[in-house]
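Help! Submission page says 'invalid entity' but I think these are all valid:
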Amino acid sequence: MSHSSFVSPNTGRPVRAVLFDTFGTVVDWRSGIAQQVDAFAAERNLPLNGLAFADTWRGGYYPAMAKIKSGERDYTPLDVLHRENLENAFSAHGVDPKSISAGDVDRLNHAWEHLPGWDDSIEGLTRLKSRYVVGPLSNGNTALLVNMGKNASLPWDVVIGLDLLRTYKPNPDAYLGAARLLRLEPGEIMLAAAHNYDLKAAREAGFATGFILRATEHGPDQTTDLEAAADWDISVSSIIELAEELKV
Amino acid sequence: MSHSSFVSPNTGRPVRAVLFDTFGTVVDWRSGIAQQVDAFAAERNLPLNGLAFADTWRGGYYPAMAKIKSGERDYTPLDVLHRENLENAFSAHGVDPKSISAGDVDRLNHAWEHLPGWDDSIEGLTRLKSRYVVGPLSNGNTALLVNMGKNASLPWDVVIGLDLLRTYKPNPDAYLGAARLLRLEPGEIMLAAAHNYDLKAAREAGFATGFILRATEHGPDQTTDLEAAADWDISVSSIIELAEELKV
């Protein structure tokens, strides 16, 4: 493979694997969650707005991780955090979570396993897979990512949920541990992500970096990550364009 | 998915995932290693017989694992054991391993990542994947299995190398840890394997079990695992037949 693989100007090494941030980079979590929440609310006659609810639910993610990063709380997998944040989101939107059966809340929590890929995701990943190892490197836990990948037909070679390493990005252990798991040098791996903070941490760990603009991840009024914040190795607007830049 | 998934008579639960022993069950390690050893020997004019060498090399596997299982040695991934056993195999076949460059020995050690699937493997796995999560549950380490899967076009949904759990089958932790990783109950997973000892341990851990006869794994004079040694849930002669039994 090596003779024609992309060589990162920053790491000076041929890339062997392209690992992807997943939520926002590969799948459209906001539309996917909104649609499932709207269907859930319609069946039960609940006064919920799917998009607003999705923003609230996802909004609990960074604060929940922050407590783990700070050591205030032991490592807890993302699906458990989602479940807690879902109850909080119900309360924030005027629905008593105790008015819904635990089984129904559990089922809605699996919405994160049923998210649509962006239009370019399957084609782009399939092309990249012809030369590179492709997989998620995600704060999601592995079971969640495996089911998501299956439901969205994402052709992963390997699934790296950070429950495997009991950490969360952007902790350096997340990137370095993934490299050890794949038996690659950090410089032989590219992180592809729609989020500059993730790419910054990946570069600090020695990874090659690819920015993928996802200008509507947070909806039409998005204000963050609308451009590459540094000279990442590659900066594109889709996974298909990433494949082209990586010569496949 | 649940309404039509196979229900194990032994566990009473619908199967959600089918995990595979890999060496011998999914890929033909003996022919694959022999062919690569023969090519390696021909290039260097070494007096090696590929099939005999493959048997010797693989023969070092159980004794090396035994030291780890007994606690005599810390957990060591399979690719490291293979590298040690390769040097021993050279010596046993009259070749001084020091007469070969370390780089060349390293390259030959990657032969385990280039093994052919049995004729039925890709079709059988592809059919199973339409309804079940499919993955290896192998004593191989994850990087080895990822590269093997890519080279042999095995359509895994997830790759579970036991370096993830720092144990080796048939330790119960291997099976129970895989279930935890997939967030499934043991009874929702079927182990498919060509080796009765592996199925016995899987059943003891609560898994459903599928025996796949591989009568020539060890060549034409094979004496082991020529029949199911217990009333496994399913007993077949190919992964395609397994898919049929599992109704896909």
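Support: the input was valid. A stray whitespace character was the problem, and the output above is from the cleaned input. The two ends of chain B are 12 Å apart (CA to CA).
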